[in-house]
Amino acid sequence: MLCAGKKSYFAAAVCIMTVTSMLAVSYLKLQRLSHQPKVIQEGRRCRGKIAISTITPLEGNKTFIISPYFDDRENKVTRVIGIVHHEDVKQLYCWFCCQVNGKIYVSKAKIDVHSDRFGFPYGATDIVCLEPKNCDPTHVSIHQSPYGNIDQLPRFEIKNRKPETFSVDFTVCISAMFGNYNNVLQFIQSMEMYKILGVQKVVIYKNNCSHLMEKVLKFYIEEGTVEVIPWPINSHLRVSYSWRFLQDGTHIGYYGQITALNDCIYRNMERSKFVVLNDADEIILPLKHPDWKTMMNSLQKQNPGASVFLFENHIFPETVSSHTFNISSWNTVPGVNILQHVYREPVRNKVTNPRKMIVDPRKVIQTSVHSVLRAYGKSVYVPMDVALIYHCRKGLQGNLPRESLIRDTTLWRYNSSLITNVNKVLSQTMLQTQN
Predict the structure, then answer these.
(1) Exposure b/e, 62-80, CB count within 10 A at least 16 = b
(2) 189 and 146 fall within a common domain
């Protein structure tokens, strides 16, 4: 035996650790080999119908594919953003068809269900496959088996294959728009504030909204500011309005917003310097800087190596209003006028305010809603005197009297530009009535 003749406990312990390490290394090598792409067919043309839906169910309706992305930050892999049942899906395989040599490769996938599942049976998932070394596949199919007919499988385009130069500095990701969303005035105000602060693109994962809201979205799409990603998740799964599983038979929380956020990061990884993860009723307001670009330049200089910047959320109750900026022509537009809401709730003792983020998308591997789960580089909590999230919504602390709230008119610094820009949008979308 390897350890024969060793009498001391120390020597025996060292011996056991050595053998264990050797076995572990051998196991990891075998595991890696088992995930290596294998040629299963040759001389084939790449066939199969190309998937065009945002959410594509696989056979059995336990796995849903959103989109694959090329990721070479550690290995040359295809990372597929998807949704899977955390218990029922045990094995998946990537089928790569290489146009160059006509070979079809199959790779066993690593199925990585994100840790922030909050008890729901389905969760955001990375389906990660090693790519063939001698080709750069443009499409991939996902199957439960390494055997079958690739012609019968949907094919998905692998995005981010070619590096791009940044086309924008800031992209805002909003997920998801649902519940026949009709907060039109606040949405327009948020969009115009984003643009004032330096945003060039807003990506919205839209489940549904009102007819009036569709009109506004059409305007921003034609303007080039908004990209709408259809998000028909309730056609496939029973969705919950809550973020936590309540044993109510639902499948996934809050319209699958975590999956949408992860897809949005990868979708914009090669085209946007920063990605902002927040909701349509939230605005990151800088207190020391005029815009986000100036603010982020300063924060990056102060925090070298940081890739995630977290901003504290503060509630401005929509039930408490100021008479200032009561603009009569806006009164017929459904939604909240944020300029009239400048009283924020005080910080609660022993309650941590949630945060939203501005991230370097090339450094993020997985994200949740209020923090990243895995990333290269550190996360930084941005002090409240640098910036805060203006969040105008229903109050969280009951009906606090006005004297208990904190008057904060930071938003009014932008009032002139904001009013002009909102009026322009309202006139061009024919939502504004004559005084």
Answers:
(1) bbbbbbbbbbeeeeebbbb
(2) no
Are residues 204 and 90 both part of a single domain? no
The parent domain of residue 145 ranges over 40-157
- CA torsion through residues 390, 394, 400, 403, sign: positive
Residue 283 CA to residue 186 CA, distance in Å, equals 11
Last residue of a domain, one of 125, 157, 189: 157
pTM here?
A: 0.90
Tell me, what CATH number does 189's domain have?
3.90.550
Question: From CA 319, how far away is CA 63, in angstroms rounded?
Answer: 42
C-alpha–C-alpha distance, residues 373 and 113, integer Å? 12
- The domain tally of the chain equals 2
Rounded Cα distance, 174 and 187, in Å? 11
Nearest Cα to Cα of residue 164 among 271, 92, 299: 271
Cα angle 88, 93, 96 (rounded to 5 degrees) comes to 155
Contact 387, 285 (CB under 8 A): yes
Give the model confidence (pLDDT) of 56-90 as tens digits.
999 999 999 999 999 999 999 999 999 999 999 99
Same domain for 96 and 195?
no
The pLDDT, as a whole number, for residue 389 is 98
173, 264 in Cβ contact below 8 A? yes
Mean pLDDT of 227-231: 98
Residues 202 and 70 placed together within one structural domain of the fold: no
Residues 280 and 354 in one domain: yes
CA distance 67 to 78: 10
Residue 183 in this model has a pLDDT that exceeds 80 = yes
pLDDT digits (tens, 9 = 90+) for 113-135: 999 999 999 999 999 999 999 88
Higher-confidence residue: 280 or 399? 280
String of DSSP letters for 249-279: S--EEGGGHHHHHHHHHHHTTTTEEEEEE--
- Nearest alpha-carbon partner for 160 in 51, 272, 50: 272
Domain boundary residue among 157, 192, 225? 157
